[in-house]
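FAQ: What does the model actually see?

It sees only this:
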Amino acid sequence: MHTIWSGERVRLRPFKDEKEYSGLVDCLHGVPNDFWGAWWDPRPRLAKDFEPAGMLDPVKYSAFAVERLDTGELVGYEEHGGPDPGTIRAWVGTFILPEHWHNGFGVEAKQLCYCYLFENYPVSMVWSSTLANHKRAARGLYESGMHFIGRTQAYHFTDGKYHDQVHYLITREEWERLPVRQVLRRGS
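And it is asked to produce this:
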């Protein structure tokens, strides 16, 4: 199983150590997000999540570091989950530092993670969700090859009101047609 996946703009790779992982999470979630609000992860929990497999555990929550190819800079992380026993679906979630938005890094990171999941697990689909008012995130899901499948009403409470959650997915057949598969490089 390859643990490094490179496209044209970014590389998905394992985190170097717990310090790199928790430092990035602190940067991304240290300031309340305009959509999700305050999001704080206690340092002991981050260390506990990291320790067993360096955030690449095939049976639970995992995450790749997202690194720019042109500068080698860490720009975010791509979280994912392989299939739960008895299921045929996996999920992804993308977090990119604000100073690196609008460069296509998140879209490509998602697509590289689809490749990782479809090539390594017997899944038929990969899904993701975001808040309905988070139009930029929803657009990124669509641009990465996913399509809208539904909405959960009053899912998240932020700024004194409830927000709906929207759901997207990509099937194995749709992924097989993505152009990223032609430029993908596996390994170092």
